[in-house]
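Structure in, sequence out. Go:
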């Protein structure tokens, strides 16, 4: 079924924008949800998105990948190549998530699917979760919906929603 890899990441992205819409929150910049396919077989989804949006790369402020399951969120990993100011801004934003323990900004992040955009200079990040049990079911028939904890899924959505909205609503683009 792929409930954690990567159905959960798709639900987190989709629910993030649904939640923002339900709350009536409209940031200064667009938040786009992209559900990539074919990561393990040649990155056709990530490459296809890049190719289809080549002329818009400069408008992309941040790409966040959620591809590590939907366990308890810890924060975000931020690509080593991210500018220091972007890292500082994201650390400040992450403080908003301290109440749920998702306030870490790790030194490395990103993801395979957003890699083609990152190579073009788009800042890349990953939703970091407690991956203690991820590889117990990763790429096995055991990766089923009954392994998804609804509370942890909701916390992942909240974490992504706070970061996506706040970055999209900054007075100046994340740099």
């Amino acid at each position: 079924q792929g409930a954690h890899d990567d159905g959960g990441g798709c639900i987190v992205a989709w629910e993030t924008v649904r939640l923002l819409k339900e709350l009536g929150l409209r940031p200064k910049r667009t938040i786009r949800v992209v559900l990539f396919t074919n990561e393990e077989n040649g990155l056709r989804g990530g490459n296809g998105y890049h190719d289809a949006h080549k002329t818009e790369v400069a408008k992309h402020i941040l790409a966040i990948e959620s591809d590590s399951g939907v366990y308890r969120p810890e924060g975000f990993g931020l690509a080593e190549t991210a500018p220091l100011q972007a890292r500082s801004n994201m650390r400040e934003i992450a403080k908003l998530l301290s109440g749920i323990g998702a306030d870490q900004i790790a030194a490395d992040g990103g993801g395979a699917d957003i890699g083609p955009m990152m190579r073009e200079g788009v800042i890349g990040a990953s939703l970091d979760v407690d991956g203690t049990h991820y590889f117990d079911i990763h790429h096995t028939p055991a990766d089923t919906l009954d392994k998804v904890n609804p509370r942890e899924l909701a916390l992942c959505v909240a974490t992504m929603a706070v970061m996506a909205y706040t970055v999209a609503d900054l007075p100046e683009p994340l740099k």
